[in-house]
Design goal:
Blueprint: E1 2-10, H1 21-35, E2 40-46, E3 53-59, H2 62-75, E4 78-85, H3 88-94
Antiparallel strand pairs: 1-3, 1-4, 2-3
Length: 95
């Protein structure tokens, strides 16, 4: 499976109360599980920097990863940047 890193930044108008973000997160996860069964969320992190959240996902279907990104953008009211990632040892072996 290919690995992707999804970086997300929530828009300033996404919610008023931080507690409301839980509902947004639940909606995003429910839709991605239902509509993108070929994408496996390996880990997710809240961060303190340019991006608010980092998700590490795996999939053999880039189209499903693209759909996850669109769900995050629409339901999560976020801007995203997605990076394909190669495990370090695999990268070195290809050199």
């Amino acid at each position: 499976m290919a690995t992707y890193i999804i970086l997300s930044r929530v828009t300033p108008t996404a919610f008023r109360d931080p507690a409301d973000f839980k509902k947004i997160a639940e909606t995003v996860m429910a839709r991605t599980k239902k509509e993108c069964p070929g994408v496996v969320f390996k880990s997710s992190y809240a961060t303190m920097g340019r991006f608010d959240f980092v998700d590490i996902v795996e999939s053999d279907d880039p189209a499903q990863v693209e759909k996850v990104i669109m769900i995050i953008r629409a339901c999560g009211q976020s801007e995203t940047e997605t990076l394909p990632a190669t495990p370090w040892r695999e990268f070195l072996a290809r050199l």
